[in-house]
């Protein structure tokens, strides 16, 4: 393993350790255990149902992207690569699941790696766009009496959505980045350089196809719907936590916790996700123990199902 990779892993664990230390120094463990003991499992089941529906929409969105390059793809063919990639991302560093989705399922999906990479890039931009939109709305809607200037942050988050939409509608805006990539691969042997160049061209063509108004409108609607379902997951998990006096704060925790995953951390975002989700709930009037208990519940709700599905595929699906 390269030194840079080792340093990245080390930085991630140091960051996670720092946020876990911040959590531990302000936690009353007796109150935390008491908060975890009073959970409504009916609400958790509802949260899990919404989470399952969210993944149905994620697979449908990816299928819609891939249909622009392979019109005969079916939903089932797309489901395994996506679910497995999310499971691997949860337990391995460096977005290993995304790499596997790009390079291990080409024959199954009937498209090249450049196409798959372009669809994952589009997924990330769409998700970032919707999360920022939700973040801006949450900062504008909730009443932050102790943080009077927070509305400026809401306006800033909504403003960032504009260039993201521009990239989705006009992929040629990333031409400078593609130029840098082409310059970087120029040092490769001609055989490998040709493969990379073909992948780049296929990726650009895919982004151009996705940018067509009707296709992009459908992708944005699907993205809004699946993130609305994730909002239901967060809200229902909050309803399950009897110790929360302001469960609606979960709607702020969704974008804040998701954006916190951009901070270098361990696989599964241990520490970073929990700290910022807990902080979001405390800002809106919940106790520290109840907020941390909720962070642990929602983290487990989001992390365990895809890992179990990925493990089931590795145990049973590979043999078929």
Supply the key terms.
320 residues, mainly alpha, 14 helices, 78% helix, globular
Spans of at least 5 consecutive residues with low confidence: none
Structural class label: mainly alpha
Major β-sheet, in short?
A: none
Instruction: Provide the residue-averaged pLDDT.
Output: 89
Share of β-strand residues: under 5%
What's the number of domains? 1
**Fraction in helix:** over 70%
The radius of gyration computed from the alpha-carbon positions, rounded to a whole number of angstroms, is: 21 Å
The termini sit apart by 32 Å
- Strand tally, please? 0
Number of helices: 14
Shape: globular
Order of helices and strands: HHHHHHHHHHHHHH
Descriptive account of the structure:
The chain is mostly helical. It has one domain (30-317). Helices cover 78% and strands 0% of the residues. The protein is built from 14 helices and no strands. It has helices spanning 3-25, 29-37, 41-67, 75-91, 96-103, 106-109, 113-141, 150-169, 175-185, 190-210, 213-240, 250-260, 272-283, 288-317. Helix 3 (41-67) packs across helix 4. The longest helix is centred in the last third of the chain and has 30 residues, at 288-317. 36% of the residues are buried. The model has no long low-confidence stretch (mean pLDDT 89).
């Amino acid at each position: 393993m390269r030194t840079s990779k080792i340093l990245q892993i080390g930085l991630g664990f140091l960051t996670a350790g720092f946020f876990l230390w911040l959590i531990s120094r302000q936690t009353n463990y007796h109150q935390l255990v008491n908060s975890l003991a009073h959970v409504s499992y009916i609400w958790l089941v509802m949260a899990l149902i919404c989470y399952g529906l969210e993944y149905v929409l994620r697979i449908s969105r990816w299928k819609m992207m891939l249909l622009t390059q392979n019109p005969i793809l079916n939903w089932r063919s797309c489901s395994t690569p996506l679910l497995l990639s999310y499971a691997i991302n949860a337990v391995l560093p460096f977005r290993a699941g995304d790499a596997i989705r790009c390079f291990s399922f080409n024959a199954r999906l009937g498209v090249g790696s450049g196409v798959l990479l372009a669809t994952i890039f589009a997924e990330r931009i769409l998700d970032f766009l919707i999360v920022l939109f939700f973040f801006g709305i949450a900062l504008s809607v909730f009443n932050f009496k102790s943080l009077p200037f927070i509305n400026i942050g809401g306006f800033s988050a909504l403003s960032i959505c504009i260039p993201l939409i521009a990239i989705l509608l006009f992929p040629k805006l990333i031409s400078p980045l593609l130029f840098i990539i082409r310059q970087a691969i120029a040092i490769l042997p001609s055989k490998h350089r040709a493969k990379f160049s073909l992948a780049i061209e296929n990726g650009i063509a895919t982004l151009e196809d996705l940018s067509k108004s009707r296709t992009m409108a459908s992708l944005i609607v699907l993205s809004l719907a699946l993130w609305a379902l994730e909002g239901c997951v967060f809200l229902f998990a909050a309803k399950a936590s009897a110790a929360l006096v302001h469960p609606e704060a979960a709607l702020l925790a969704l974008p804040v916790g998701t954006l916190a995953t951009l901070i270098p951390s361990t696989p599964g975002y241990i520490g970073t996700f929990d700290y910022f989700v807990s902080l979001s709930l405390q800002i809106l009037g919940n106790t520290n123990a109840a907020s941390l208990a909720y962070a642990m519940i929602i983290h487990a709700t989001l992390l365990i199902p895809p890992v179990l599905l990925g493990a089931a595929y590795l145990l049973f699906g590979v043999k078929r």
